[in-house]
Amino acid sequence: MPPASPRPNRVDPFGDLHAVHERGMFTGNRGCLVDETGQTVRHHRGQLWITCVTSYREWKSPLDQPGHWTPLFFLDDAVALAAGHRPCGLCRRGDYRAYRDAVQLGSGRGESPSATELNRTLASERLKRGRGLHRARDRKTWTAAASQLPDGAVILVGDRHPALIAENHLFAFGFGGWTLLDERPPRGRVVVLTPPTSVMALSRGYTPRLHPSVSG
Asked: What does DSSP say about strands 169-172 and 179-183: parallel, antiparallel, or unpaired?
């Protein structure tokens, strides 16, 4: 029997959805993305974009149930952060607190930002306009000095191709893993896909869980 056709629930670093068989290290959601027939009809719903572990308390979640959050899948933390997600405060409590505290440290705030504040800030940093299923054209990007970006940040090579900064190298994105591309740019400014808030978290102590292809 041939394998079932994959659903468009795999997320690339732009945040776009793709129908591929690979699943990756994390799941997560951005609201209910399907209509009453179970067909994917929207890119997101609401500002709560989180990244979750794939197994938690033996809870099971349907992949395409109307009125229920739609599971998405990410290669690793770097992809999820680049797409505009943050760690879940329930199933990834430790990672969420580390992310939140790193943002607090980087911003110089006297108190930790709430989950709602993080959601609102990330929402303002993700997309330019509108709604739809394909968002690469609508993603907000920004520029930074290459030498100042932390491991785990995703930049654009040639303004189109996502590349991960890690271990003084660049790795090209693929749904099956990262591929060594080049040495890390030593100087100059680069286009950054990972939202500024998440880059701040990476710079101030948040350690992303990266796919084994980075070190293997």
From this structure: antiparallel
At 28 the three-state DSSP class reads: strand
Write down the pTM of the prediction.
Answer: 0.93
| Per-residue pLDDT reduced to its tens digit, 131-174 | 455 566 789 999 999 999 999 999 999 878 999 999 899 999 99
Neighbours of 22 (CB within 10 A): 13
In angstroms, the CA 61 to CA 40 distance is 16
- Domain boundaries along the sequence of the chain: 8-214
| Alpha-carbon gap, residue 8 to 23, rounded angstroms | 11
Give the chain's end-to-end CA distance (angstroms, integer): 33
**Quick check: 81 and 113 in contact, CB under 8 A?**
no
Crossing angle for the helix pair 115-126 and 93-107, nearest 10 degrees? Answer: 70
> Coil, strand, or helix at residue 31?
coil
Residue matched to tokens 């109307």: 66
